[in-house]
Amino acid sequence: MFGRIPSLASTASKSAPRSATCTRPASRSSEALYLRVSAEPDPRIVTARPGPTNAASKSGFCALGRASPPPASVTRSIAPESGSTHATENASSWITSNRWSCQTSAEPARRPWSGLDERIRARRRGSWDALITTSAFTRARAWRQPFLASVRSLEQPPSTEAHRSASVDLDKLPEEGRRRVQIERVRPEIDGGRFPIKRILGDKIDVSAIVYADGHDVLACALLYRPAPSVGDPDPPWVSVPLEPTPEPDRFVASFSPDTLGLWQYTVEAWIDRYGTFRRDLKKRVEAAQDVSVDILDGATLLEQAARDATGDDARSLADIAARLRDHTLSLTERITLALDSGLCMAAARHPDKRLASRYPGVLEVVVDPEKARFSAWYELFPRSFGPEGRHGTFADAEARLPYVAEMGFDVLYLPPIHPIGQTNRKGKNNTLVAEEGDVGSPWAIGAPEGGHTAVHPSLGTLDDFDRFFQAAERLGIDVALDIALQASPDHPWVHEHPSWFPRRADGTARYAENPPKKYQDIHPFEFETEEWPELWRSLEGIFRFWIARGVRFFRVDNPHTKALPFWEWLIRVIKRDHPEVVFLSEAFTRPALMYGLAKRGFTQSYTYFTWRVSKDEITSYMHDLTKTEVVEFYRPNFWPNTPDILPEHLQNREPSAFLIRLVLAATLSSSYGMYGPAFELMEHKPLREGAEEYADSEKFELKRWDLRRPDSLRPMISRVNRIRMEHPALARNDNLRFFHTDSDLVLAYGKTHGDDTLIVVVNLDPYHRHGAWVELDLPGLTDAGRGFEVHDLLSGARYTFRGTRNWVEIDPRTSPACVFHARRLARRENDYEYFL
């Protein structure tokens, strides 16, 4: 029986120690265990219980910690007494930011032992569960087992039986104890191989590993890769590429390039290179003038083994040389020369003895996506706002605006939900609770008697009309992205057909969506903990498959962080198994761990915090997180300066320069970006109220009429920026971003390089005043030796000559708040020409 230690939520407000008891056998030895849990911001639960034991270990405990701690530090002393373990809590104030750490140490209860200062710390971000299992110090025949601890990520607390079955039987020998080569730290790898990395078709994937073994043998290792096996099909064979050593000891590298979209696998294999070891040692013995007559015979034996594993010419050649090494009619010098031949060594290496080869325990995965998964420009519009005055717009009306979108250079057109909108609890203009006659409601309140997620709003047209619109966009090189919002209006057919799919209130009515204090009376969320979850999952999968069957390959998913993560992991994997070209954009403005968790589980691109990163320090720090950490392996940002939900404070003015600053930053910092238009290019800037980030007269709740021919429209500058993006491959990726030092906090400078294409972007972050700064460039090949090079401002058309690493740049936001310089090769001198002698 296990006693449950009271929730930590109760400890922060009580000064007196509290205790709880969990029963454990009285025969356990009497060491004490101290568990320190530093936590914030929600209550956590800690449960103490006996841990696994074996013949050598006579005592053990384990503590289960669950997320949600208060801002308190709790120290627990768990010490065995006759038949029970008492846990004493002492609370003190200690705050960390959305993380917690456990520090565990074993100390004697009665008899002092020396050196008992073994500790383990485990730190993780976000909400999580952790199991800390300890086998305490034991004494058996004058030796004691080291203190052991492990932290494992859990989805639910394990049962006692499961916990015992996961423990290691130290008396059992390994299946094969002669595998001497160790493989560690294979990179890239996400969370120990739990999730796949992401790449684009044609990318070269560099893989590294730490490979070592006892002794001094020469090691050989290979990178193995293949397309992921499909259920019901034979497993594809592994392709093997040698891993090459690097100057760093024990580190080996290789690369591969997947040639199809979809899921691929890779791992590392390593073994003792016996002939390579023989050849190295033979050379040393010869140089030391030692007798190697017997060693030559060892080499012959190795070659005979390689010949048996080889086929064709290699088999014949290896067998022939092995025989010649045993031929005593040849001089020893001749046989040594044969044995040391580099070609022979390469032939032997092609057919190694892998009977005792080691394989990295994990098979790692990589999702290979199309190019637009990394490089795309998105434009959002509401089709219903493009009809004639006084009429709801149609797909045909929106089709007439496709050239407008294409001329600005956008290649993905994102439509808010196009489905029937419910009447019950329909929202009025500006999100009012009572809709007046003629109010069109929010497109995110999906479902009406006309249908749900696989129907289109009757005022927009029919499915055939949508197909024509979709095909017209394709002809212009535009992919249409649909907004999939997994929620339902009270009038959605599923609300009545499947009531258990929706959460219920105490009075039996369906619960509407809430994010207190916000309420969404026109929307019901799905209940992902329903007993009918398999049917729910399959029905939601059917929504995506319906639109994929009509040609849609881009999906923007609304608020995925409010739906179950296991669902997304399953859904995206099964969809991309059949349609690897599909792109999922996650619209999740939430905690970092949750945003990253969605990306790990398959979302191709993700919205970001860029919308709120304004200052120089904020931008540089955030971009470092996105491009210089392991996040780059799985998280593809999509920068949006505005959305229908978000009018950020820095855009709540009429200065065109404020909008242009955010345009240039979004389009050049991130390889994928988007905007909500025509609100952006027409500089909509009025908030619903002071201090709000919502648009006044929001298009989410009413039809808008946009004057696309306004002379002050930012359309020309947007077109120019998108043309720059298309003409310069340096902007098509994020991992090449570098920031340059400037001596002004209001001047931001950074660059991207791809091959011979180098761009330098300098932005005045102040939309009102002129600012200049010294920009310190570090561009090998351009800034070397202080020689001059030309920079062409692709926004203004002006050309300048920069010299060396330090150059002055001054920007007036009234003309253009940024410069996008294309840096050209070094200016030539007379001695650069071939006729100079």
Brief descriptors of the model:
837 residues, alpha+beta, Immunoglobulin-like, Methane Monooxygenase Hydroxylase, Chain G, domain 1, 16 helices, 39 strands, globular, disordered N terminus
Tell me what the structure shows.
The protein has 16 helices and 39 strands. By secondary structure, it is an alpha+beta fold. It has five domains: 159 residues, no CATH class; 103 residues, Immunoglobulin-like (Sandwich), CATH 2.60.40.10; 75 residues, Up-down Bundle (Methane Monooxygenase Hydroxylase, Chain G, domain 1), CATH 1.20.58.80; 357 residues, Alpha-Beta Barrel (TIM Barrel), CATH 3.20.20; 100 residues, Immunoglobulin-like (Sandwich). It has an eight-stranded antiparallel beta sheet with strand order 37-36-39-34-33-32-35-38, with helices on both faces. The protein has a seven-stranded parallel beta sheet with strand order 30-29-28-23-22-21-31. α12 links the parallel β28 and β29. It catalyses: alpha-maltose 1-phosphate + [(1->4)-alpha-D-glucosyl](n) = [(1->4)-alpha-D-glucosyl](n+2) + phosphate. Homodimer.
